[in-house]
Structures are given as structure tokens and as C-alpha cells.
Amino acid sequence: MKTLKIIFIVWLIAGRYLSVAQSSVFVSTQGKQIIASDGRPLLLKGINLGNWLVPEGYMFKFEGTNSPRLIDKVFSELLGSDGAKKFWKQYRDNYITKEDIAFIKKIGLNSIRVPFNYRLFVSEDHDTRFAGPGFEMLDRVVAWCKEEKLYVVFDMHCAPGGQTGDNIDDSFGYPYLFESAESQQLTIDLWREIAKRYAKEPIVIGYDLLNEPIATYFDAAKFNDKLEPLYKRIVAGIREVDTNHIVFLGGAQWNGNFKVFGIPFDKKSVYTYHKYWCDTTQAMVQEYKDFSNKYTVPIWMGESGENTDIWVDGWRKLNERNNFGWCFWPYKKMDATSNIVSMKRTAEWDSIIVYTKRAGNSFADIRKFMPARDVITKAFDDYLENCKFQHCEVNEGYVKALGLMQNKK
Q1: With 335 labelled, which of 2, 26, 76, 293 sits at a CA distance of 20 to 30 A?
Q2: Cα within 13 Å of Cα(405), Cβ side
Q3: pLDDT band at 128 (very low <50, low <70, confident <90, very high)
């Protein structure tokens, strides 16, 4: 009897320790599922914080001025170099705030994806010394998400050299990453540094290594075979400092082509695809379902949207039927309904839009087409105020299409 009591006490103590351990583990993977810290399957339902740490021209209503560096060039013309730096600092402070994160959680989402530009983390001469506002911004959003119990995925949207070769990676129109040893090493080093910093942070799910690598404009036969080997090198760098978090691996050609992948090489891998403007039928996702079945790995739809509420509703349901977690694009835009919240567009901002269409490469063009100083000042001051959460409008139809609570602010 005494022996049984001892065994029972040991069992109770072990059970308590096991319970604590289970409640403190990281989000992980098991077969075809992502697993939460309580050991239960976790279907990710998220939104991308697009345009925050990677500004995109179309979200400012620009056309040709579409990448971060091109937008910064125009803003520097209009505000001066120092004025543009001040604008971007205030922009990062205002565009996504604690209130935005609280609202995202309130309406029923459980995760966010944070696209970032590598340039926010490196010194101006692009050496391997990490300097800039990047870590401050990630620390900030992680702290807010911890408070709200909202999971975070970090996404390298703009890698050194450019992994896509288009405006979305802030490159020079070619995927130089795959031809530059220096850019590849900087990519590995930066991911290692990020992983080292957040290795013990459970609210972070993991790392989306390269957004939409190798656009369809380029020779797939030349570039595709280089993608998975680079992924392996990046993951090896991450695993030197962090064995806790998931790595998200996107296919070639805008994340769509999984034929570039062989047998999974990391036990905490999730494969992520993006797809826009397609039918909402099983045929559109069957190849990803087949991949999941073949290799017994989870699939995550990391980006989609920019469509009608009816389409978003159908696409979301299709992914859920296949047990694919999702993360729609984007959370916030100017004067638009294909997103959760929309900010106001002003007449003065229209003058900035016009300038981006007319401005050429000469100083004569800059002087000729530049709006009046008071118009410029008001346009940018109003933008910084209007992008704050409290001044944005909730797109109820879009929220409903995501299967979430219709909840006004």
C-alpha cells in the first residue's frame, strides 16, 4: 500500500510538471497539422500587415512608383531627405499600433504575418553590421501580440539582392539573390540574427523565409533549382540558434510552384502557397493537397485576397475544407474595401498621386510638376493622421467574408 501511495504521488507530480511543460511549448507541427501549445490542432486564421514595413505603391494609389525605394525617392523629392526620414519614422509609428493589433484579435483572427524589408535591419553601406529600426518594430509588434495572445509569423518580403525580381521585393528588377554569394550570406546571417533574438518567444510561430521567390518573368530552368538549396542553408543558420520555431517554405513563381521541393528536410516545416484571382474550386488547390498527402506536411495559404467579398468567402472556405490555414492580404489600405480597415483619401493626396505620374528623372520635371508647399505639407500630415486606427473605417463585408465577427470599433 505504501508503495502504491508513493507511485501515486510521483504520478501526480509528474503530471503537474508535464502539464506545465505542455502549456509552455512552442507552436509546432505534427503530420499534416500545425499544433498549438496545448497539443491541439491549430488552424491559422490571419491577416498580413502589408504596407507597414514594406510600403507598396498601389496602397498609396500610385502606379509606376511602386516599390519602397521608388516611393522613398518621390517622398524625398517632395519633403527633402530629412523630411522623408521623419515621415517614415512617424509612418511606422502610426500605421500599425497596439489598437490595430487589439482589433485584429477582437474580430476573431488568431495570427498575423509581418512582411519586412531587410533594409530595415542593415547599416546604410549594407555590410553585415545590423543597424536600423527593424528589430525595434518587430519587438513592438511581438509585445502587442503577446498581450493579445495573437500569433506572429515573420516574413522576409524583401531579401538582399531581391528574391522575386519585381517591385514587391524592392529589388532592381532581377532576382540577384540567386546569383550573389554576398546577398545569400547576408540573408542567412539576418535570419540567424532574428531567430537568435526570438528563439525563446512562444508567441512567434516561425519564419517565412522568402516571399514569392522567382517571378514568372524569369528563366525557371535557370533559377528554380537554386531555391531549395538556399532554403536549406537559411534553415541551417536558423537551427544553429533556434530549434523551437517553424520555418515556412514558399514555392517558386510567386509561391505557387511546389515542384521545386524534394523530401522535407526539416521536421518543423510548413509549406506555403499564394494564389490570387482564380476560381474557388478544388482544382485550384489540389496540387498542394497532393503535396501534403505525399509528404505528410502542413500547408499554409500565406497570401490571397484583393478581390470581392464573395470571392474571399469562397476562397477561405475552400482552404478550410482542405485544412489549410490562411492569411489574407492585406489588413489596411487607402480608400478600398478589399481589406479589413480603410483609411481616408484626401484631395491633397490626389496631388501627390498626380505628381508621381508626371515627375520624370530631371530636376526640371521635379520643379515643374511639384505641388505647392502647403499642399505637400497638408497631404503628408493628413496621411499620417488618417492612417491611425481610430480614423479608419471597418469594411464589414470583408470581415464577414473572412468568417469573423462583424464588430464595429
Answers
A1: 76
A2: 11
A3: low
Q: Please give the DSSP secondary-structure letter assigned to residue 259.
A: G
Q: Which residue has the cell 503628408?
A: 380
According to the model, what pLDDT value does residue 124 have? 65
Task: Give the whole-angstrom CA distance, residue 400 versus residue 275.
Answer: 21
User: To which residue does cell 481616408 refer?
Assistant: 344
Cα 187 from Cα 182, distance rounded (Å): 9
Taking the C-alpha atoms of residue 16 and residue 20, their distance in angstroms, rounded to an integer, is 6
- Record the pTM: 0.92
Residue 367: pLDDT band with limits 50, 70, 90: confident
- Closest listed residue to residue 220, CA positions, set 247, 256, 192: 256
Contact 337, 56 (CB under 8 A): no
Q: How far apart are CA 368 and CA 349, in angstroms?
A: 18
| Residues in contact with 234: Cβ distance below 8 Å, sequence separation at least 6, in sequence order | 187, 188, 191, 209, 210, 247
Do 345 and 61 form a contact (C-beta atoms < 8 A)?
Answer: yes
Residue 117 predicted with pLDDT over 70: yes
Cis peptide upstream of residue 330 (ω within 30 degrees of 0): yes
Cα–Cα distance measured from residue 175 to residue 161, given in angstroms and rounded to the nearest whole number: 7
Kindly state the cell numbers that stand for 350: 490626389
Task: Collapse the DSSP code of 34 into the 3-class scheme (helix H, G, I; strand E, B; otherwise coil) and give the result.
Answer: strand
Q: In the predicted model, what is the mean pLDDT of the chain?
A: 92
Indicate whether 156 pLDDT > 60.
yes
Cα 129 from chain centre? 24
